[in-house]
Specification:
The structure is a homodimer of 111-residue chains.
Chain A lengths: L11 H12 L3 H12 L7 H5 L4 H13 L3 E6 L2 E6 L1 H16 L10
Chain A binds a DNA duplex (30 and 30 nucleotides) through helix 4.
Chain lengths: 111, 111
DNA sequence: ATTGTTCATCGTAAATGTACGATAAATGCA
DNA sequence: TGCATTTATCGTACATTTACGATGAACAAT
């Protein structure tokens, strides 16, 4: 990728927003988050039953969500319960909401 | 990638959300959108002056934003003016806002 | 007609993402 | 101890993303 390491500087917000967006940039991860958000409480590998994907693939997606901080998991071997991480969830709401709800100065007629 | 084409089904919302999220999953694209959103009106390759990246790379990112429908461009050779596409912008606001603002049933103490 | 400006596209290289099956790790139970 | 269950991780294959420089296309001005 020939990265020019000096290059572009990003604000913290830009980086956090980008990482959250990246986490939800795959439809199956959105589906997983929806499921977790709608459950009374946490969740486990019922995902494997609901989503027709290899268990390893789902685990990989869960890892991505974990690393983005959008979910958290409670290890209770051999099971693991996952749920939404409220803190990051709120951050996401604030940052993305603020971003897209901002009044747009832009009033042009580009085509 | 050995895609199992039958596999998982996604709702329209899930797909649209994912594609919008993907578009803003890179900090430089967030930066570009911020710049476009804050301008009185449209914008051009002043981006190249503001963002220290190869012109071709910026063009690539603009293409990604275009394809996601988040911006639109008016060709006025040899210049091109870009601006926010309000329609998709509102969709993004609604979908992402609705997603992250939804009341979470989830009230667990996962760690 | 030639030149300059602006932008997109091509070609390319390296990194990252996405999917799978196989295997390992952790625990409970027989 | 050995087996079943659940989940993460490894290895692998292929696609996609991201960056760059070089080149091409469209038009204005000379």
């Amino acid at each position: 990728m020939k990265r020019t390491l000096s290059a572009v500087e990003y604000s913290g917000e830009e980086q956090i927003m980008a990482s959250i967006a990246k986490a939800i940039s795959h439809p199956v991860r959105i589906k997983i988050l929806k499921l977790l958000a709608s459950r009374q409480c946490c969740f486990t590998g019922e995902l494997t039953e609901i989503i027709p994907m290899a268990q390893s693939t789902i685990s990989q997606h869960l890892k991505a969500l974990l690393e983005a901080g959008l979910i958290q998991g409670e290890i209770n071997p051999p099971k693991v319960r996952y749920c939404i991480n409220l803190e990051t969830w709120l951050t996401a709401s604030t940052l993305l909401g603020g971003f897209f709800n901002a009044d747009l100065t832009c009033r042009c007629e580009c085509r």
